[in-house]
Amino acid sequence: MLNIILCGAPGCGKGTQSTLLVEKYNLKHLSTGELLRSEIESKSDVGKQAEKYISIGSLVPDQMIIEILLNAVDKYAATAAGFILDGFPRTVEQAAALEKAFEERNNKIDFLVDIQVETKELITRLLIRGETSGRSDDNLDTIKKRLQVYESKTAPVNEFYKNLGKYHSINGIGEISEISARISEVIDAELNK
């Protein structure tokens, strides 16, 4: 089973790249953003709680995210060739809990790929996405707050995976196919170790 974390600041292209990788490597894409939006749309208790945090640009509490994600992992484990985790872990605490949870399931996170994009480009991409998708969290004030939260809370996750020897970074600027090729190069090199 191949389990990859696709990481990067909001707007770096994790969702787009995940879709391409799912097709190429036959993996199950688990986006915490999509899982959360699904909970919010269903108006579940956890969805109502999560919406309060998301609407102001804050992170949903670790325990809530971990529970939602592991439910999805358990649901698809028997049929998936592996997982691409998109948008999780967002904190070092989540990363440690994820490693432990996968170990308890006799599984492991193979590595993290960090898609790096400059802040100015991220803001431009997110504003465009907000105009075309209608996502309420893609407005300038919320975008700036989300990027600040990313830098303070999520960027340290990269150090966590560097310390485990499971970190790769790629340049997230260019055509979608170029970025996908860079990620595939990392995955193929890891698979051929």
Notable characteristics:
193 residues, Rossmann fold, five-stranded parallel beta sheet, 8 helices, 60% helix
Can you walk through the features of this model?
The structure is a single chain. The chain has one domain (2-191): Rossmann fold (3-Layer(aba) Sandwich), CATH 3.40.50. Helix content is 60%, strand content 13%. It contains 8 helices and 5 strands; from the N terminus they run βαβαααβαβααβα. The chain has helices at 14-25, 32-41, 45-54, 62-76, 92-104, 119-133, 140-163, 176-191; strands spanning 2-7, 28-31, 82-86, 111-116, 167-171. It has a 5-stranded parallel beta sheet with strand order 2-3-1-4-5, with helices on both faces. The mean pLDDT is 91.
How are the elements arranged and paired?
Blueprint: E1 2-7, H1 14-25, E2 28-31, H2 32-41, H3 45-54, H4 62-76, E3 82-86, H5 92-104, E4 111-116, H6 119-133, H7 140-163, E5 167-171, H8 176-191
Parallel strand pairs: 1-3, 1-4, 2-3, 4-5
Major pleated sheet: 5 strands, parallel
The helicity comes to 55-70%
What's the total helix number?
Answer: 8
* Mean pLDDT value: 91
CATH class: Alpha Beta
Name the quaternary structure: single chain
Alpha carbon gap, first and last residue: 15 Å
CATH topology: Rossmann fold
Could you tell me the number of beta strands? 5
Give the amount of beta strand, in percent.
5-15%
What is the string of SSEs from the N terminus onward?
EHEHHHEHEHHEH
